[in-house]
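Writing this down once: the sequence line spells out the residues, with the fold written below as integer tokens. This is how one looks:
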Amino acid sequence: MSDEPTKPSPAPKPFLLLKSIVSRVPLSDSDQEKAAKLISQCTLEELQSLNLGPPPRPIPPKFTATAADKVPPQQRLSQVQRVISSLQYNHHAGYFYNVSKDRPWSRVMDTARELLATALPIKCIEAVFLGAYLTAGWLDLDRIPIGFKSRSHQDQEVHRHIVLVVRHFPSGKYGALGISRRKELMDKELKFESLRDILTNYRESYDMWGHKLLKVYVGLPLDHDLLYNGMAIWRYLHLNAAKHKWSKCCNQLDLFEGTDTENDHRY
């Protein structure tokens, strides 16, 4: 048996380390710092082989108001959701866009156009902006912003989320568009019979992910006119799910749904 000391294994090449890091996107802050240092140690050919170029610009569905009626609503909404999902979720703490809701609707729609032009990652509020922009003019649909406030059972941290619920007038069905870290908290198929049904589904999804739903905020239908200079009503009905039984919240949803008008898209 040899008494010679075992030679240490050679350190992995910077390129191999970088390749390992970028394979697990989204990157943590520490991984981003490591990747930045490794990039400077790699050759141009090695970096090009990673195919880390900018993502392709999303191609929005093109339906005129007349043509949209000839395409099944779920097919149209699926195309819109594909555009939203293609931008990917922004896991960083900040935003790449102006996400203020306290401005004229036409300015919010300007941000939606910017989303398509730059194709940077988005969070739930930008997904709502984009969903409203891409479905504008489809008058067989109402687009209702729904906000959620929840608390994690694990760390008691409070989280906020928003989706765009859609109602198809001819069928009376409800669905949703959106983006989230969790698949169950983003889009929903156009299959729910009422607002209470689809929001109950979201509540069950929160339970599944270990969250207690605290509040739900129901807005009024968003305007189909992209140049409308009025303000959107993002929070019209407030439901305190932490204080009241869910059945009572559902009764309020039924009242809201019953007093809503099907032919008035501007509030």
Observations:
- The longest helix spans residues 73-86.
- DSSP finds nine helices and six strands in the chain.
- Strands lie at 141-152, 158-168, 174-177, 188-192, 211-218, 237-240.
